[in-house]
Write a structure and sequence with these properties.
Helix content: 40-55%
Length: 343
């Protein structure tokens, strides 16, 4: 009953304005005249009525848009939840920005968890962006958060992700016409700093040290998940070397390296990382801020594709598994709190 009354009230004013316009046109002598002054007055009356109707209709639409943005923000917090500032001796920072105007989340995903096997991280990119990619992002992240603790090797984690994605695609596209896929990079950082990875069509990460910045590309990646099945044989991990104290591992999606400026020039990601590394020792947040600021100045507007960045820095002299280096709380790496965020 309350909802019906609200709708009646919302329709009352437009009805009055419409009745006024019709009455003026049919009953007012001035509206029947055809000279120029009479036509100007008639046009002004209908313009005022039309403007009032537009303004009246805009208010509920604005309220609905605000509500949708709040829902999108809640979805972002649930899916890309703020990462802890420290995970098992690693300093952590991350950011994600959607390419879709008005969307708080896109098709990029990341997560970092401390397990008995070491710190495990995922960085992924779902085909497409914006609200339409939310379902796949939720499936991949939900599966990773469970499998990372259950599986003793990254190959087992990747197979769990493949099965979860296959089920999701069959449910969403029963006819088998899905063209959706996900690029993924799985990384495991052990207590002694040794890094292992499995890559499914994703850009390889960078390692930032005091002496050099190098992209770690130990081999050809597997195809993105969803395009072709993984091999039936074992999935051997690729070694990424050792993350020494003071070193940082930089993970990203291709929206960063493919970002272009007004002249069509690609973002110089390697050069920006080298500039950030020269200021070492730097925290993950400082590296992320430097890259985010450079990206924002390069594109000068909303990105053409979703962008996600993740930095893991070994800032302790002790081994990563030492007591007292566990995650210290959440909330320091909320998505969108660097200069890369839309303004």
């Amino acid at each position: 009953m309350i909802r019906i009354r609200g709708r009646v009230r919302s329709l009352g004013l437009p009805a009055v304005w419409g009745a006024t316009a019709v009455t003026y046109k049919l009953a007012c002598p001035l509206a029947q005249q055809t000279d120029l002054p009479a036509r100007i007055v008639t046009s002004a009356v209908f313009f005022a009525v039309g403007t009032g109707l537009i303004l009246h209709a805009r208010r509920p639409l604005t309220r609905e848009l605000r509500q949708l943005r709040r829902v999108a923000g809640a979805a972002q917090s649930a899916l890309l939840r703020p990462l802890p500032s420290r995970v098992d001796g690693l300093d952590v920072a991350a950011v994600q920005v959607s390419a879709e105007r008005g969307a708080a989340i896109g098709g990029d995903l990341y997560e970092v968890v401390a397990t008995e096997f070491g710190v495990r991280a995922v960085m992924g990119d779902v085909r497409g962006h914006g609200i339409g990619a939310l379902g796949t992002v939720a499936v991949v992240l939900g599966c990773f958060r469970e499998a990372a603790h259950d599986e003793k090797d990254l190959g087992g984690v990747l197979r769990r992700l493949e099965r979860a994605l296959d089920r999701h695609l069959r449910q969403e596209h029963p006819a088998g016409d899905a063209e959706e896929f996900v690029t993924l990079l799985l990384v495991e950082i052990r207590a002694d700093g040794e890094m292992l990875a499995l890559n499914c069509g994703h850009p390889w990460p960078y390692r930032l040290s005091r002496t050099e910045v190098a992209q770690l590309a130990p081999g050809d990646p597997y195809p993105p998940l969803g395009l072709f099945p993984l091999p039936d044989a074992d999935l051997p991990t690729a070694g990424l070397g050792c993350l020494e104290p003071g070193d940082a591992l930089f993970l990203y999606t291709d929206g960063a390296q493919d970002a272009r400026d007004g002249r069509g020039r690609f973002f110089p990601l390697t050069a920006v990382l080298e500039s950030a590394a020269r200021d070492a020792p730097a925290s993950s947040r400082e590296v992320l801020t430097r890259v985010g600021t450079a990206l924002r100045h390069h594109i000068r507007g909303a990105p053409a594709d979703d962008i996600a960045l993740l930095v893991l820095t070994n800032d302790r002299d002790a081994p990563l598994g030492s007591a007292g280096n566990r995650a210290s709380g959440r909330g320091a790496s909320a998505p969108g709190d660097t200069p890369l965020s839309p303004r």
